[in-house]
Structure formats: C-alpha cells, structure tokens
Amino acid sequence: MTTSSGFSPWSRLRRAALIGMMLAGLPFAPACRPHPSASAPLKVVFFTDVHARTEWDTPQALAKAARAITAEHADLVICGGDMITDGFNATPAQAAPRWDAYHAMHAAIRPPPVCAIGNHDLVGAEPADGSPPAADPRAEFRTRLGLDQIYRSFDFRGFHFILLDPFEVTGGDEPYRGFVGPEQMRWLHADLARTPRDVPILLVSHMPRLTVVYQLAQGLATPVPANRGILNNREVLAAFANHRLLAVLQGHLHVEELIRWRGTTFITGGAVCGQWWRGPWQGTPEGYGVLLLHPDRVEWEYHPYGWQARRPAGR
Predict the structure, then answer these.
(1) Are 43 and 75 in contact (CB under 8 A)?
(2) What's the rounded mean pLDDT across residues 60-74?
(3) CA pair distance 67, 272, nearest whole angstrom
(4) What integer pLDDT is reported at residue 233 of this predicted model?
(5) Helix-helix angle 92-108:58-70, to 10 degrees
(6) 83 within 8 A of 103, measured Cβ to Cβ
(7) Rounded to two decimals, what is the model's pTM?
(8) Res. 172: pLDDT tops 90
C-alpha cells in the first residue's frame, strides 16, 4: 500500500507522523539538537534540477542518484527545485507521470528532502497544447509536497533555513522572470525580525542571487537574463544586512559554481540531470553537492553519481 504521493507506509502511527513531515518538507530531528561547533559540522546534501521524466531510463538514473545521496548519511537533504521537467508548459495530467517519477526518488532518500520550488515545478502556467492556463500554477507543487506555503523557514541544529519562491509569471516572449515580490519581501523581513542576529542563516532559492556563469561563458559585459537570475537580488540581500547570511544555495543554471562575497558563500549546485539528460553541461556532470556547515564557514564538494546519458542525439 502506498499514499497518493508514492510514499510507502510503516506502522499506522509512525506513518501518520513521518509521512506528514516528509510531505511538508520538514527534517527528521528532535527539537533540541546541539548548536553547531567546529568539531561537529552539520552535513547537508544539496541537489537540484532533477527534471524527472519517464523516458530514456531516467527513473533508473533517479534511483541511482537517490542511493548515492542516501549513502552520504547527511543530517539534512535539500532539493533546490525543478523536480520535474517542463511542468510550466504542461497540463496537470501531462505532468503527473513526471511527478510520480520524482516522488519515487524522493521516497528513496534518507533523510527526506526539504524542497524549494523551481520554474519547471509551476504546472500549467502556459500549456503548450493550448489548454487554458492554470489559475494557480503553484497548486500542484503545494499539493504534491503537502505544503500550505511555498516560501517558508525552519530551524535545524543551530542554523536557520529560508526557502524562497523567486518567480513571477509574466507571459510573452519571456514567460517568467526572477523576482521576489512585495508580499514575500514583507514575510522575509518578519521572519528575520524573529531570528536572532547571531544565528547563521542559509537561503535556498532556485533562481540565482549571484552568478558569473554568463560572464565566464559569453564575456565580461554579458548581463544575466531576466529569467536566469533574481532582478531584485540587491533588495533581497539587503534584508540580511544585520544578520549572518552564511550561504545561499541556488540552482537553475545546471553548473557547479562557488562565489564568496562579503562573508556569504553563494553555491550554484549543478544538476542531477546534467545537460537535461544529455550528459555534462558546461563541464559539470550529473551530480549533487555536499556541504559541511560550521558557524562561520562553509565547506563544499560536488559529487557526480556516475550516470551515463541515454538520451538519443537530437532529442
């Protein structure tokens, strides 16, 4: 017997408690855990840009990635979004098999991942078959993960984690852009007001806050397109001026990148799918990242999981 989201039950009471936490994206941990120290860093796996689908033996790749992530024995696992592929241009019925493929991976990972939203996870924003756009493209994401709110925060072993929703659906030639709107900014300021200033914070956002990928790939004067980065990134980062923003975890670009700026480590976490299941992209193979979090610094390594692309040429 399985739930509608594909998670296997254990005992009746344990299933009710643990599956509720899994679907809500909450880490399994007692409320009181030791504060981080130099001798006991918090180990976090960060994976992003899964682009789950059913073709080209992709479910086998997802199972392989899940085994590798679980074998890291992390304290916390975070998914940076784009769990499915092409949800933006799909109807809920078209996206359903992709969600099922992702949930099989999700259910196999321990501890269960905490998930941020990606642009491909907005379902039905502009269906390619001409169907009417979804009234709420985020509804499928919330339903599938059992969430009331997409942007949210939690505390874990002395660190404060914030997950944002960085998308504004605009339509037209650029159907979405990276932007954190006024309502979410008000929530962010309120959340930070409740957070002690000495607590190290990790910000998780699918769309990058800071990147030099375009400058390195296309030339120093190349701007970041509006659908590849957060347009109001300075406003967002300014909200942390009186706090300890230890790291920003981001995805979307499918490359591994690490930047340190004014005491904050910005990490673009590669992609589970690499070049959309065609192999490595810009020198970054299919993989995920492992962080060791100390109160004052971050250690990062990118771990390929050994998948050999099976997507046919030209597809």
Answers:
(1) yes
(2) 98
(3) 13
(4) 94
(5) 30
(6) no
(7) 0.87
(8) no
Q: Edge-to-edge, what's the strand order for the sheet holding 152-156?
A: 152-156, 159-163, 200-205, 244-250, 264-269, 256-261
Asked if residue 20 belongs to a domain, the reply is no
CA distance 44 to 72: 9
- d(CA 255, CA 304) in angstroms, rounded, equals 12
Could you identify the residue written with the tokens 């930070």?
Answer: 192
Structure tokens, 294? 């100390």
Tell me how far apart the alpha carbons of residues 109 and 187 are, in angstroms, rounded to a whole number.
Answer: 30
CATH number for position 272: 3.60.21.10
pLDDT > 90: percent of the chain: 78
What is the mean predicted confidence (pLDDT) over 95-118? Answer: 98
Domain count, the chain: 1
Query: 202 by DSSP, 3-state: which?
Result: strand
Per the document, the length of the chain is 315
- Specify if 164 maps to a domain: yes
pLDDT at position 127 over 70:
yes
In a domain, 69, yes or no: yes
Q: Residues with Cβ < 8 Å from 126, sequence gap 6 or more? A: 88, 89, 133, 171, 175
For the cut 90, the answer to whether the pLDDT of residue 261 exceeds it is: yes
User: What pLDDT digit, counting tens, does each position of 137-152 carry?
Assistant: 999 999 999 999 999 9
Give the range of the structural domain holding residue 97, as residue numbers without chain letter: 45-304
Q: In 3-state terms, what secondary structure has residue 79?
A: strand
CA distances from 41 to 65, 227, 233 (A): 24, 35, 29
In a domain, 298, yes or no: yes
